[in-house]
Amino acid sequence: MRNIREIAWENGYQLPTNAETQRIASYNWFEKSKYVVKTDDNTYVFGDSKTGARYKVANGKLIEQHLGIVR
Fold this sequence. Notes:
Blueprint: H1 4-10, E1 24-25, E2 34-40, E3 43-48, E4 53-58, E5 61-66
Antiparallel strand pairs: 1-2, 2-3, 3-4, 4-5
Protein backbone atom coordinates (compact mmCIF):
# COMPACT_ATOMS: atom_id res chain seq x y z
CA MET A 1 0.00 0.00 0.00
CA ARG A 2 1.40 3.40 -1.03
CA ASN A 3 1.01 6.59 0.92
CA ILE A 4 -0.76 9.79 -0.13
CA ARG A 5 2.55 11.58 -0.84
CA GLU A 6 3.71 8.95 -3.37
CA ILE A 7 0.39 9.04 -5.22
CA ALA A 8 0.34 12.85 -5.26
CA TRP A 9 3.94 12.99 -6.51
CA GLU A 10 3.14 10.60 -9.39
CA ASN A 11 0.34 12.97 -10.45
CA GLY A 12 2.43 16.14 -10.29
CA TYR A 13 1.64 17.37 -6.77
CA GLN A 14 3.93 17.88 -3.80
CA LEU A 15 1.86 17.90 -0.63
CA PRO A 16 2.59 20.24 2.28
CA THR A 17 4.10 18.79 5.45
CA ASN A 18 0.81 18.99 7.35
CA ALA A 19 -1.28 17.06 4.78
CA GLU A 20 -1.71 13.93 6.92
CA THR A 21 -2.47 15.72 10.19
CA GLN A 22 -4.74 18.61 9.19
CA ARG A 23 -8.34 18.48 7.99
CA ILE A 24 -7.56 20.99 5.24
CA ALA A 25 -3.90 21.52 4.40
CA SER A 26 -2.93 24.82 2.87
CA TYR A 27 -0.50 25.38 0.03
CA ASN A 28 1.37 28.45 1.23
CA TRP A 29 4.14 28.16 -1.36
CA PHE A 30 2.03 27.07 -4.37
CA GLU A 31 -0.69 28.66 -6.42
CA LYS A 32 -3.82 29.28 -4.37
CA SER A 33 -5.82 27.05 -6.72
CA LYS A 34 -4.24 23.81 -5.41
CA TYR A 35 -5.80 22.03 -2.46
CA VAL A 36 -5.77 18.86 -0.37
CA VAL A 37 -8.61 17.85 1.95
CA LYS A 38 -8.69 14.97 4.43
CA THR A 39 -12.27 13.64 4.31
CA ASP A 40 -11.77 10.90 6.93
CA ASP A 41 -8.92 9.01 8.58
CA ASN A 42 -7.87 7.18 5.40
CA THR A 43 -9.31 9.29 2.57
CA TYR A 44 -7.87 12.39 0.92
CA VAL A 45 -8.94 14.52 -2.04
CA PHE A 46 -6.42 16.76 -3.76
CA GLY A 47 -6.39 18.74 -6.97
CA ASP A 48 -6.38 22.09 -8.71
CA SER A 49 -9.54 24.20 -8.77
CA LYS A 50 -8.22 26.24 -11.72
CA THR A 51 -8.00 23.25 -14.09
CA GLY A 52 -10.61 21.04 -12.43
CA ALA A 53 -8.14 18.22 -11.82
CA ARG A 54 -9.23 16.07 -8.87
CA TYR A 55 -7.79 12.92 -7.29
CA LYS A 56 -9.28 10.83 -4.51
CA VAL A 57 -7.09 8.46 -2.49
CA ALA A 58 -8.49 5.96 0.02
CA ASN A 59 -6.49 3.41 2.00
CA GLY A 60 -3.36 4.10 -0.05
CA LYS A 61 -5.02 3.56 -3.44
CA LEU A 62 -6.04 6.06 -6.10
CA ILE A 63 -9.77 5.35 -6.43
CA GLU A 64 -10.95 8.35 -8.46
CA GLN A 65 -9.20 10.57 -11.00
CA HIS A 66 -10.56 13.47 -13.03
CA LEU A 67 -7.97 15.29 -15.13
CA GLY A 68 -10.01 18.44 -15.76
CA ILE A 69 -8.91 20.85 -18.48
CA VAL A 70 -5.57 19.86 -19.96
CA ARG A 71 -3.58 22.89 -21.09
